[in-house]
Amino acid sequence: MSTPRQDDDGLSLIEVIVYVVVLGILMIVVTMIFINTWTAQASVASQTQATTRGQLVASQFERALRNAVDYSIEESGTVLKINTTFTGTRQCQGFALTDSGLAMTITSNNAEQPIADWPIWQDRVEAITGTTPFTDVDSTTIAYAFNAVSDSAPVRFTGDTYMRNQRAGMDGCWE
What we know:
By secondary structure, the chain is of the alpha+beta class. The protein is built from 1 helix and 9 strands, in the order αβββββββββ. Helix content is about 30%, strand content about 30%. InterPro entries: N_methyl_site.
């Protein structure tokens, strides 16, 4: 007499459960790798943007003061007013670090324009806690300090810049 043949093809219930659990664990690991990579990329992009913004601001300070014939620091060191050697509409340049960001104005004569009316040029720039944004180092040099804000950590910028010209007064600017 012959015994009936059992078919061993296919998977048992235990094998299916083990495969599903292992596959689930692998999918969680792969998903976490993608999420961490995406988060790190976003952080690096934000830091890069903040660095670029800070370099732009610092170079604008340095260019304006390098071409200055006079300057003044006001409002407890949060406002820098410059009379430059540029002619026409770029002669008078002003920078003000406010709660909304860095305000800037560039015109031929800002005698009566209130700082509150200056447009915000860079909105993710702020003062470094406990420091003064603009400091008079000597009669021709200023020090600046600010943070360019990013989504992770701020990028700190500090430096000194000086006038190449002799002081000639604020004639035509800020009077």
